[in-house]
TrEMBL record:
The keyword Protein biosynthesis does not apply. Residues 31-65 form a coiled coil. GO terms for molecular function: microtubule plus-end binding. This is Uncharacterized protein. Signal peptide: none annotated. It holds the Pfam family DASH_Hsk3. GO terms for biological process: attachment of spindle microtubules to kinetochore.
Amino acid sequence: MQHSCMNVHLNTVLNILRLAFKHASHTTSAMTTRDRQMTQLKSQLAQLEANLVDMSNLMERTTEQALHIRELGILHASIFMSAHAAFENETFQAGQAEEKMMESEYEE
């Protein structure tokens, strides 16, 4: 009987130790998971910061390019306006020459 009672106590102690070990491993596992998640979060934040720095540099470059594109548009418009004026002048002179020619033919 004493042997049986001792066996029950031993089983109880073993069960308590198993539960304690299980709980400790879950706690350790939870801490390990949390540590891993925090490490991953730090890594993602570092990547986000690097991406924001890159985006800031690209925005500055885009702003500079937009100003240059504006200047290019102004130059392009100036060329079109001067070409239009030159063709208008040429057309006007050609029209006057044609009118004079027709007048001289009419007079004859």
